[in-house]
Specification:
With 189 residues, the protein is α/β, with parallel strands linked by helices. It has a single domain, classed as Pyruvate-ferredoxin Oxidoreductase, domain 3, CATH 3.40.920. The protein has a seven-stranded mixed beta sheet, sandwiched between helices. Helix 1 packs across helix 5 and helix 4 packs across helix 6. The relative contact order is 0.17.
């Protein structure tokens, strides 16, 4: 099994930490792992993306042109990465701020309202964990207990008291991801 993922959005959305948690989770399952972040010079508001590869075999290169799964969190990332999903692959996105929804019919598309759900849970910082939960529902590539271990490895020990909230957010995401159907274009005479 090899899963090649790109997670893309704005800086400050937890894109890189979501990738790091996935990578640590893969390590906890004795998988080969690659985690390669990419971000602009801005601290918040600039674009950020991370590629993560989880595999049962050695990984030859961390660089990906096409992916099995794209997790898209803003319009700029949708514009840039929608076409990088392999035919038959998966695109997961938060519709908040998306003006041009995905149009491909050769991939599986899912929506998850991470912005709304994390706000309803009272903590917008768990947005990325809601999204991660949705991804793990669609593609259970790592076990929840390994995600919890990944959380422990990737966040400072002083924040370990927030792990139960993060697990709750992951569960919320698992329960709230829905398939998205691409509408056929309507032509007018």
């Amino acid at each position: 099994m090899t899963e090649e993922i790109i997670i893309a959005g704005f800086g400050g959305q937890g894109v890189l930490s979501m990738g790091k948690i996935l990578a640590y989770s893969g390590i906890m399952q004795n998988q080969e792992v690659s985690w390669m972040p990419s971000y602009g010079p801005e601290m918040r508001g600039g674009t950020a993306n991370v590629t993560v590869i989880l595999s049962d075999e050695r990984i030859s290169s961390p660089y990906l042109k096409i992916v099995d799964t794209a997790i898209i969190l803003n319009q700029q990332s949708m514009d840039k990465f929608e076409e990088s999903v392999k035919p038959g692959g998966v695109l997961i996105y938060d519709p908040n701020g998306i003006t041009a929804h995905p149009t491909r019919t050769d991939i599986k598309i899912y929506q998850i309202e991470g912005t709304r759900l994390s706000s309803e849970m009272g903590n917008k910082k768990i947005f990325n964990m809601v999204i991660l939960g949705g991804y793990l529902k669609v593609k259970p590539v790592v076990k929840l207990e390994n995600v919890i271990e990944g959380l422990k490895k990737s966040i400072s020990e002083r924040y370990h008291n927030l792990i139960p909230l993060n697990v709750e957010a992951i569960t919320m995401g698992m329960n709230n991801i829905i398939p998205y159907k691409v509408e056929a274009p309507v032509f007018q005479n």
